[in-house]
Amino acid sequence: MSRRTRQIIVTSALPYANGSIHIGHLLEYIQTDIWVRFQKLCGHDVTYVCGDDAHGTPIMLKAREAGITPEAHIAKYLAEHQADFARFGVNFDNFFTTHSDLNRDLSYLIYNQIKEKHPDYLVRRPVEQLYDPKENMFLPDRFITGTCPNCKTPDQYGDSCEACGKTFDPTDLIDPRSVISGATPVLKESEHIFFRLEPSRAALQQLFNSGFVDAAVRNKLWEWFEKEKVAEDGTRTKVAQELRDWDITRDPPFFGFPIPGEPGKFLYNWFDAPIGYLASLGKYLGFDAAQTAQYWNDALEVHHFIGKDIQYFHAMFWPAILAAAGLRVPTRLAIHGFLTVNGRKMSKRDGTFIKASTFARHMDPQWLRYYFATKLGPQPDDVDLSFEDFRARVDGELVGKLANLISRAAPILTRLLEGKLGVPAMDAVGLLEECRAAAGPIEDAYEGRNFAAVTRQICALADKANKYVEDQAPWALVKKDAEEARGVLTAALEAGRILTIYLKPILPEFAARVERCLAIGPLEWKHVQDSMPPHTIAPFERLVDRIDPKKVAAMIEESTEGGKKLETSSQQLEASSQKPESSSQNMEANKPAAAPAPGAVAADPRATNSEPLAPTCTIDQFMAVDLRVGRVVTAETLTASDKLMKIQIDAGPLGQRTILAGIKQAYTPERLVGRLVIFCANLAPRKMKFGTSEGMILASGPGGPDVFVLSPDNGAQPGQRVH
Fold first, then answer.
1. DSSP 8-state code for residue 98
2. Tens of pLDDT along 388-402?
3. How far apart are CA 370 and CA 382, in angstroms?
4. Alpha carbons 49 and 621: distance in angstroms, whole number
5. Sequence-distant (≥ 6) Cβ neighbours of residue 23 within 8 angstroms
6. Distance of alpha carbon 575 from alpha carbon 522, whole angstroms
């Protein structure tokens, strides 16, 4: 059945040309690239553009500090960013810069069209700001420090306190000083131009109700339209609140675009930065500003992928600016959460603030693409990169399941049967039909950005295909019936080919190696329903390697601030994923407490075992407890319970079990689904308020948020007994 070809423009947020790309940034670009590759694989007309945000005071000051021009500074980062994205297979159709003639022309075009079409949207008003008398410049909030007016913590920035979390104006700081010169700033007034958002209220509300953002994001954005009013009798009601105006100008010195007809005024870089989406598109097409604007208006779909930290700007101001200038608004915002590492915010001190180039120097970028895919869903939930889980996913799923299928069959076919494919064995027809039938659900999951569901479905099919190979044992069958063995191996490789199509958006390099191995052309989504004709495959090449824990340790050490070595040895990293994710920074936690050595990470008090030893049990008592391996099929939080989650466990031959586990405060469902756990299988069922629990999942920790689910090592299978 033919499908309608879609015309889609896709963007990722512009990285700032004042620092290196790190793995937190890569979460967004890999997510976008996967979605774009899927759409292209389906035959759609997709243009993926991005570029550096290359204006602003921080760039101007950093260049001055380095003794170079701002242009030279941003050129350095432009080259570095492009190299980093290429390492991770992020395949932009064009990567540009906002510091370009085309972006200037587009910015002026949009600014002037707003002036012409809606002059009342632009208002002037005086602004009182802190001014550095030594440097003769107004100071952005982050270039002012002082004592927090709330908790009195010193050395806090001019917009918020990192100690107490209070937000405030820079003028509220006690004893403020300029970060640039150290001088005490003074208040000075300047006239600025503001973009009024309130006139766009009705249009924005209509946009949010049209599927522009997901429901959870819409509900969050709606808070900006309303405020709570408390009556004298205590009754609370929601009333409309006026949307705040946005200052779109800056005073000199400033690295950016001067505003025509406004001497001494520059466009704020957050005004011209999103216009960089259009500029990158126009550069790719070879268009001028007017042609680019027309093409943008004629586009059928425009999708922006962004982080939730900039959702307010992209959901409120950006559509309002476009509409005011007579340009189309985007079709949809795809919003993701933040990245944490081992359950914590990325930290240079802990060695988890990892640059893209550092990761690629020690690890295979394919690993990170796959891991992020296993974690990404359609909601803006945070994603945690646990190095233990990372290794379990890569070694257990990517290598042990997905690569294993072709890695077993292809070498046997080449070595024993001259590498010649035949006709798939008749007893594999059902398996292959099931693989092909999964195309629809997997396609839906890709379209909905539910990449975690994509990988779960592919892994489930890989399990069945690997079991088929294991049951048929072609390495033994070939000694009895060569042609029957050829049919089994052909079926295995056909299943591997189909699964490779499903994986190709996530792992393009892996797919290219499979294509070379099978001696077939570039795979497309429509090829799922095809079959390979009999032919000779190419010599096998290794598809992907397992993770070397020594390289993980080396990467963390290189990323540690000041070059301090973390207490993480390769032997400790080689252990199975039984360590709690949040204690991966503290590999020495099981040693007796002692003063930390210089540069070492202090022991985590949560790891201390304060529970008394239980009474001695006999071997018979111990053997009466039947512990089994299970795989989490589904996990859901129980809204009426503060502690419980409802978890469905696949126990292999024992069937499925429903377990109510008190781990809600420590885990999200996304972190559990697909994971192997250990559970007590012969515990008497217990009727509870929320249903019947048919077992108990093993975990350590005192409770609450400090609960750590135990997992077996790679290779364990659901249903196996733990001895």
1. S
2. 999 999 999 999 999
3. 17
4. 64
5. 339, 341, 346, 354, 355, 356, 359, 368, 385
6. 39
Average pLDDT, the chain: 89
* 267/109 Cα distance (integer angstroms): 13
- Give the global pTM: 0.78
C-alpha closest to that of 217 among 130, 304, 152: 304
What beta strand segments (E) does 109-217 contain?
122-132, 137-138, 144-147, 156-157, 174-178, 186-195
Q: Which residue type, as a one-letter code, is found at position 442?
A: I
Q: Which CATH number fits domain 365-529: 1.10.730.10, 3.40.50.2300, 3.40.50.11270, 1.10.540.10?
A: 1.10.730.10
What is the pLDDT at residue 577?
Answer: 27
The upper half-sphere exposure of residue 28, i.e. CA atoms within 13 Å in the direction of its Cβ, equals 25
| Whether domain 619-722 has CATH 2.40.50.140 | yes
pLDDT digits (tens, 9 = 90+) for 148-188: 999 999 999 988 888 887 888 888 999 999 999 999 999 99
Q: pLDDT at residue 595 above 90?
A: no
**pLDDT at residue 691, as a whole number:** 85
Compute the distance between CA of residue 525 and CA of residue 43 in angstroms, rounded to an integer: 8
Structure confidence at residue 714 (pLDDT): 59
d(CA 39, CA 91): 13
Give domain limits for the chain. 365-529, 619-722
Same fold for the domain at 365-529 and the one at 619-722?
Answer: no
Task: Give per-residue burial for 384-400: e unless 16+ CB within 10 Å, then b.
Answer: bbbbbbbbbbbbbbbbb
Q: Which helix (H) or strand (E) holds 327?
A: none
Tokens of 632: 């989490």
Mention every residue, 6+ apart, whose C-beta is less than 8 A from residue 493. 406, 409, 410, 413, 421, 518, 532, 537
Angstrom distance (rounded) from CA 231 to CA 237 = 8
